[in-house]
Amino acid sequence: MIPLYWFLMLSAVLFSLGLFAVITRRNTISILMGIELMLNAANINILAFWRYLYAPRGDMDGLIFTLIVFVTAAAEVAVGLGLIVSAYRKRRTVVANDLDSLKG
Amino acid sequence: MFNIHPLIWLIPLPPLLGFVLIVLFTRRSNRTSHNVALVGSGLSFVASMVVFFKAVTTDGLAGSPISASINWLPTGADWLRIGVLVDPLTAVMLFFVAWTVLMIFIYSIGYHNFGQPAGRNDRPGFSPEGAEAKEHGKAHKVPSVEPMYARFFALLSLFAFAMYLLVVSDNLLTLYIGWEIMGFCSYFLIGFWYGKESARKAGIKAFITTRIGDVFMLLGMVALYSVTGTLNFHEIFSNPQTMLMLTSTQSPAFGLNWAGLIGLLLFCGTVGKSAQFPLHVWLPDAMEGPTPVSAMIHAATMVSAGVYLSARLFPLMSAGWHHGGALTAPMAAMAVIGGFTALFTSTIALAQHDIKRVLAYSTISQLGYMIAALGIGAYTAAVFHLVTHAFFKALLFLGSGSVIHGMEHGVLHTGNHIDPQDMRHMGGLRRRMPLTFWTFLAGGLALSGFPLITAGFWSKDEILNGTFTGGHIGLFIVLAITAFLTAFYTARQITLVFFGKPRSTAAEHAHETKPVMTVPLMILAIFAIGAGWAGIPHAFPVLGAISPAWFQSFIGSMLSPQSIEEAHSNIPLIVSVLVSLGGLLLGWLVYRCMETAEEKDPLQKISGSVYNLLQNKYWIDELYQKALINPSLWLADKVVYQFIDLKIIDGILHGLGRAGVGLGNLLRAKFDLPVVNGAGDGLAGSTRGLGVFLHKLQNGRVQTYLLIAVACTVVLVLVICFLIGEGVIGVTE
Description:
The complex is a heterodimer of chains A (104) and B (733).
Chain A: H1 4-24, H2 28-54, H3 61-91
Helix pairs in contact in A: 1-2, 2-3
Chain B: H1 5-10, H2 13-26, H3 30-56, E1 66-75, E2 78-86, H4 88-111, E3 131-135, E4 138-142, H5 149-168, H6 172-190, H7 197-228, H8 233-237, H9 240-248, H10 258-273, H11 282-285, H12 291-300, H13 302-312, H14 314-317, H15 329-349, H16 355-375, H17 379-414, H18 429-432, H19 434-448, H20 455-469, H21 473-498, H22 505-508, H23 515-530, H24 543-546, H25 550-556, H26 570-591, H27 602-606, H28 608-615, H29 620-697, H30 702-726
Antiparallel strand pairs in B: 1-2, 3-4
Helix pairs in contact in B: 2-3, 2-5, 3-4, 3-5, 4-5, 4-12, 4-17, 4-23, 5-6, 6-7, 6-12, 7-10, 10-13, 10-15, 12-17, 13-16, 13-17, 15-16, 15-21, 16-17, 16-21, 17-19, 17-20, 17-23, 17-25, 19-21, 19-23, 20-21, 20-26, 21-26
């Protein structure tokens, strides 16, 4: 059986890639995609721990938690894309650095 | 008989109440004001008479006087008690004070022209100048009512209160209070017509001059209190141990015993109040006041208070003296000052032209007579003369006021502006003002000691007799010369005023005054004649046999047996008759031939420069001006004001001010600005700097925020891992 840390490594790599994308990408859609990556990395993490620690005992909590994350991610994408489209319509840009009206 | 004590307490109060009522309520109404004053003094008069008759019918009054006292001020464990005391001396004082005060109150109504119209030009502070009036169809000038009529009666009432208080009080402190209130009233009434500069100056002069005596008197009181522990007359004088202690204990000054020192200090009060040399200068100037004031304050009552004080303190002054023995220090001082003043001022009176000034100097002279009599121990004679003098001098002053009033009438009538008080302008008033003439004559004869019928003769004879039989021949001669001069200037005055022909048109048109003025004159004239009959001595030839000599036994009971003089000699009697008649005759002979007002005084023709000296009162006023007042003013201006005040005190104050400003500036520069402001500014500045720094972080870019969050998380995780590794945070399985 594949050892647990492989999964954890995979998850960490994915998470780092997602984070990198979120921080460095200029396009807001790419940032949204980075967020999806990070969410999925977290899902892998959850599932791996579930499979190795809780599945033998018959618990299904991990699966349910993962499903909730999926739903949340889908909703988030829907809202995020909506916001981006709306911002584009208003500002004619999707570059994150230009959307700085929160500046103090 | 009912209890007399409350009545004695009540004697001084009605005039005080009258004063308050007039000042607070009735001052706008002349009629109500003088009614209030009259009722006040009338009540006091009635009470005084009742007390007087009670006193004379009480046996052994001197040994056990009527007295009552209450606790007044707590002084540590003890109380300062005030109270009233009626002994023979108080009783006779009450008698003449009550009569003269009442007469003067009534007289003042007429003197201030009550009922006359107000003058158009009259202003408060100036004597009334007369008003236009129509009579019998033609307009002419008439006297006008005094503008400050109510004020006059208010002050007179206050004065009467003070005098009664002084007479009935049983201790030196309340006596002193009355004494000072009188000084205050005297100041106000002398300066009553304050619009005149001379009146203002006279008021200030009187106040300050008497104050010199009063300061010494206060010192005497303090000394007496600290030595004996009480100021009550009876307690001191009737206690042999206290008297022995006073006479046997050495005082710290001049090698005198305490009785001598205190006596001298208290006598200084008398010198000021009774205008004895060298403090006599204020009394003639006090004639600036209205004539009733001159009569009341400066002849009958207030100046008598000084003699009264000396008489009251006679046991103290004479402590250690017995009749025929050596005089004590206060007595010697009294004899010398009194005798000198008597002679000195009677010579000045010879050369005065103002009718009131002659009387003023005569008053000083007569007071000197009494003081001298007290000084050689002729106690009853002094008190006797005090009483008779009060009556005839009040009479003379009121009479002179009546004369002045008549002359003012003439001045107004003729429009000829002469001084209505100058005797050279008078003459022949005998026919124009008969009532004034006869009463003035009675007073004048009493003053000059006209034999047998007048009161002044008896009292003056007593004094001369006392000095002669006491062995004080020098004083006897001085007083005899004084008596001669007194008779002479009195004759001069009467002759100039009433006899001969009028020397001015005003005198031709002079007018007899109203009954409200002449009736008091007549009543006082009765006393000026009759008051002496109460004191005809037993030893007097013929008359003595039928005389009760009431006064001698009544007042004499005040004295300890060793001070009573019984001796009588006919030499002073003969001298007294001779000087009196001689002076009167000579005065009449010299002055009856004065024809015009411009004529030189006959005395001036005989003795030019001496007369000049007398007329200028021995230049005493000028001497005081040069020797005392000018140096005082110089000291006050140059030294005290310009040097001490401006240079030293102001310098210190300005220096303090500058030092304060300098210190303030220093603190501001070195502490306030760098430390306090620096701290405040630094706090604000650092907050602002932090804000500026944080402001840069909030650039609105989500990715930057996120980066910071990640960085912080990483750091946090590293820290936590490090802490777990170190075992600071435990991990549970």
